[in-house]
Amino acid sequence: QSCFLPILTYCKTAMISDLEALVLDLLAAKAPTYGLDLVHASSGRLKRGSVYVTLGRMEQKGFVTSMLDVRPGEGPPRRLYEPTALGLRALVAARIMDGDLPLGAFR
Question: Taking the model in full, what pTM does it have?
Answer without folding.
Answer: 0.79
